[in-house]
Amino acid sequence: MSALLKPAAPLDVAAIRAQFPILNQQVRGKPLVYLDNAASGQKPEAVITAITDCYRGYYSNIHRGVHALSERSTTAFEEARERVRSFLNAASAREIVFLRGTTEAINLVAHSFLRPRLAAGDEILVTEMEHHSNIVPWQLVAAEKGARVVAAPITDVGELDLDAFERLLGPRTRLVAVAHVSNVLGTVNPVARIVALARARGIPVLVDGAQGAPHLGVDVQALGCDFYAFSAHKVYGPSGVGALWGKAEHLAAMPPYQGGGGMIRRVSFAGTTFADPPERFEAGTPDIAGVIGFGAALEWTRGIGLDAIAAHEEALTAYAMARLAEIPGLRLIGTAADKAGVVSFVLGHVHPHDIGTVLDREGVAVRVGHHCAQPLMDRYGVPATARASFAVYNTHAEIDALVAALWKVKEWFD
Amino acid sequence: MSDLRDLYQEVILDHNKRPRNFRVIDPASHHAEGFNPLCGDRIAVFVDVVDGVIRDLSFQGQGCAISTASASLMTEALKGHPVSDLDALFDKFHELVTSDGPTPPGLGKLAVLAGVRDYPSRVKCATLAWHALKAALEHRADPVATE
After folding, report:
1. Do the strands A173-179 and A205-208 form a parallel or antiparallel pair, or are they unpaired?
2. Residues B50-84: tens digit of each pLDDT
3. Nearest CA to A102 among A10, A239, A9, A217?
4. Within chain A, which residues score under 50 in pLDDT?
5. CB contact under 8 A, B39 and A28
6. Which of A197, A384, B27, B71 is the most interior residue, by most CB within 10 Å?
7. Which of A372, A377, A408, A410 is catalytic?
8. What are the pLDDT digits (tens) for B7-32?
């Protein structure tokens, strides 16, 4: 829904689906309809092969050995770093830190960037639509320092109230942390605008890109933010791997997060000096094959084209919103003008858990619950929602299957 | 593979739609809140115990069909019974919803929840009110969580 999107050729979804072995199966006697992509995406053959090729052909520890396998693994690992750089349009691959995922990336920034500059009475500004992983790491350091986490309100349709946000940017605000895309509402936040408001006051901005990276082309230099965190597993890569991009001057000034091997320059009992970023923040042997799979996933995604993926998911989202609105008693949670790939709803008095179980019997996988966003559930006065979320391989027919299954839910519980 | 009907039996749907003893007891000799962090559901359980007997038992809150029906059926099963019956009944109920063995005897209407055993992610829904009741009788102040 971004005006900047170039018109993209329609995707050959059947050919794309054929690349995902897991999609070709029956669940409970029905064809699998996988609509839980905001929780985790499935993996194409190219990613599975990249990981098995590593283990079968050239796996070894990296950055250590002088032998051939170690050199091959190191080269592949560092190629993945370059692929992340390219995916985010970062200025340098040295600005890319490999971590376990978005959560660890945010914890790293909380610990090594924010903590040293935080004093009693300071504030971290987030929004009401944040995932717990963009709330709790800030609360932990805030509690330690006597600072506090402030949440900017959202409107009833699920858009950030920018006026209120601007008013909350105060002299004590030390960091702004916002989701690029809400994991519950699908709202695309106006990150460039948020960054402009914060930067005018000298306040750094972290963007939680867990849901942004899979759905939107990301250009961290155009966004103007200071940190961007995302996970491989939501971008068709393996779980347990993710990346933090941070501006070089920030990373250079940050103390280590964890101590161990690989992050040092010289160790002695008199004192230890640390490696430069990104290795300073990559203590211990990383998930080598996972990082290589991460790189393969980004390459695969780029091959399909983020613009084409975004246009496809935008069409699916619009279709899903229209079809779901046909169901009496169904209330959409999150109807922002700019939405990407995520549709949450509640259905009359039927609890989302019961919706999820009935849909599962129809082969339809959705997420039900609070989606690690309990403050947002409180905001809408619901204990939980059901959420359908889309990926490049989903089809209009699968949304029809979701809608048909929801009519069955009504048969059971009305 | 079990049918959806095995989980959502008529009795369960009925107790979900019209939960019994869905009210506050005030004053109650004991009360506690149960919380399921998985889904955010909360159920408050109220008990009035006189001379070791559960004279009145009720609950309130928001939950799925399984947790609501289980709470409702629990209040019916235990009202008028000695507090000392709870542990044995809960053990049997827990076995009912978690094991593959034959339905334990003496559960009465609670046996309709047997289908839960085929849905491991829903066991916590079925036991939420029970954990809250145990906490209430133990006079625990903090909400009891299912995990």
Report:
1. parallel
2. 999 999 999 999 899 999 999 999 999 999 999 99
3. A239
4. 1-5
5. no
6. B71
7. A372
8. 999 999 999 999 999 999 999 999 99
Identify the CATH assignment for B4-140 out of 3.40.50.720, 2.30.30.100, 3.90.1010.10, 3.30.70.360: 3.90.1010.10
**Percent of chain B having pLDDT more than 70?**
93
The C-alpha of B84 sits at a distance from chain A's nearest C-alpha, in angstroms, of: 33
pLDDT at residue B1 in the model: 42
The Cα–Cα gap between B34 and B130 comes to 9
Q: Give the residue from chain B lying closest to A29, CA to CA.
A: B1
**Closest alpha carbon to B116 in B102, B127, B132, B105:** B127
Domains of chain A: 13-36+305-413 (3.90.1150.10), 47-302 (3.40.640.10)
Instruction: Determine the distance in angstroms separating the CA of B128 from the nearest CA of chain A, rounded to an integer.
Output: 14
Please name the residue of chain B whose CA is at the shortest distance from the CA of residue A352: B64
ipTM of the complex in this document: 0.89
- What single letter denotes the amino acid at residue A161? D
pLDDT digits (tens, 9 = 90+) for B81-122: 999 999 999 999 999 999 999 999 999 999 999 999 999 989
Domain borders along chain B are: 4-140
- Decide if A361 and B4 are in contact by the 8 Å CB cutoff: yes
Question: Which stretches does DSSP call E strand in chain B?
Answer: 30-36, 41-50, 53-62, 144-145
